[in-house]
Amino acid sequence: MPDRDTHKRSLVKGFTWRFLGTLDTTLISWAVTGNPLKAISIGGIEVFTKVILYYFHERVWQNIRWGKGVLRTVIYPEERLKNIHPVFDRILSREDREAYLDQRSKVIWLTGLSGSGKTTIAQILEKKLFEAGVFCQVLDGDNIRSGINNNLGFSAEDRQENIRRIAEVAKLYLNSGVVTICSFISPLRQMRNTARNIIGAEDFVEVFVDTPLAVCEERDVKGLYQKARKGEIEEFTGVSAPYEAPENPALVLHTASQTPEASARELFEFILPSVKPVDDE
Length: 281
What we know:
By secondary structure, the chain is α/β, with parallel strands linked by helices. The chain folds into 2 domains: 7-62, no CATH class; 93-275, 3-Layer(aba) Sandwich (Rossmann fold), CATH 3.40.50. Helix content is 52%, strand content 9%. The chain has 11 helices and 5 strands; from the N terminus they run ααααβαβααβαβααβα. The N and C termini lie far apart (59 Å).
């Protein structure tokens, strides 16, 4: 579905709108001048000038992205699904892939405020797991938003869609036998529940990187909190948008009192037995 009007549509809209506008102008002119001939003359001249102005006005606004939301194509589920034919039963299973990689796949979901240390921990954890023979992949907020989600903003709806897409990607990795490390603020419980439902509760390992807001602001590596405090960034989590801490995370990391290396080591020791189990003798 196109997200802009065609030239023909803009012209037709211009003429129909001007018919109503000209009728309105003619009636007003008649009421003011008391002369129906003058009123018709004014309305007749105006219709041509305003149609052209409206057309160019429409074309200019079609090229301005400000104020536009993400295009949503609404399709009823039965229409959407009738031409989709999944082949999951005809490709290698998750178990086949896990056996080949000699590991069990999981999705490790790091959540916390900006500046809490999620990305650094994810990077260190990836290296530790890789050195332990675990094939893994990091999905990070900035990387995802510069690629697959580069058409999304930071509205509540776009943030929800951002997490939904990430969860679907993580699920693909999960079914490929890969351990996936997700590093996303994902500020609301509803968002994380969406991810959990897509991935599956038994494979979703929620890790809360618990760092006080003041500590995150002191670090402010990207200068985002300072911009948010100045009003240069709207809907910024922790400043002008809420963060809901997990109620029952699998693990809590306190990065204000320990180094990223120590936090990553704690997470590594926690997760390793579930992704690289020792074979029973």
